[in-house]
Write a structure and sequence with these properties.
alpha/beta, Spore Coat Polysaccharide Biosynthesis Protein SpsA, Chain A, 7-stranded mixed β-sheet, 11 strands
Amino acid sequence: MKSGKMNIYIMTHREFVPPQVAGYTPLQVGASLHEDLGYQRDDEGDNISAKNGNYSELTGLYWMWKHAPKAEITGLVHYRRYFVDAKGDPLDEAGIREIMDGHQAIMTPELILDTSVREQYEMHHVAKDLDLVEDAIRRISPEYLDTYHAFLSGNRMHFANMIITSSEIINRYAEWLFSILFDVEAHMDMTGYDDYNRRVYGFLSERLITVWLLYNKIDFVEHMVALVGTKADIKAADETFREYLNRGDMDGAAKYYADLQEKHPDYFHRGSGADDDFINHCIIVEIYQLEVAHHVMQKIDEGRDADAMVRVLREVSMRLGECMQNFKNQDAREALVSYIENERISPIAMAMMVNHCTEDKTQRLLVYSNIAESYLVKGDHEKTTIYAQLAMQQQ
């Protein structure tokens, strides 16, 4: 890359301390709706600032497209989320040039989903949104349809609407993106959408950026992202989790969990600073969702507050550890099964806890086989069959 001006915009809706790195400019998104923060505003000139509730940080991208001076290096990051160097500091120009050497853009690390991209979107948002996008692409850019379909059928995507590239590339992307989203908006009916899903165009763009990059064969490199103030944010999120769990609002906790996964996938990465309580609260919600899906009568939250549920997870983890140290230890095995029975822990919950305790399929097989054997001795053929099936699934 040749030398030239760098101007990366930091999308923010609140006051913050910008990084002391040359070439970063705070951009207040949704500025027309809020008090002036003293930063560059996204409501100057041609803008969609007033649509921030639906477009999220894209109101900033629109302003960049229409008004930002051309720069060889440009892009958008978030006020708490940056592409970082080995020290965890936002990348400076030299670092960016080194990373982009031979490439056209920097993107966030690829997420590998447990489901297809379409299924993941439909689980957390409104399914018809994707159909409206397909209709818009068919009307405006039909040449993108095959790439769009292949992307939705796959299980890989990038998160956070972050990119570093050139003005030429980001403007080409913005022109295409907004042509699609404005067409979707013209055909959109948000009746029944909650506040979360009204941010629909921000969610859609997180998918569409990969479609555009792939179709246009943009050579991008993935680079690590870090949050500023992550530990404090996760602690606050965990307190919200605890509030939901303590008042028995498991459905509310599940929706909050989905919201965190969508908005803050970094919270769930290794090295995020998440403590055991936060991780355990996430596991509890996952167990509850599976128990509901399988119509389990005695669920993990029955008669338990947040602390009691966490105690169950920790006790099971400890007893599983004792069993895995020596599978011939009959006392440890019987103590585990007695605890399962006394606490009325469902096989669904046990499977989730075993999965979190070990990734070794051989150890999982031995755990389930030993539990099945204990139930066989007790004469509980239903539980014997369930745990035997879990064991077979590890082969």
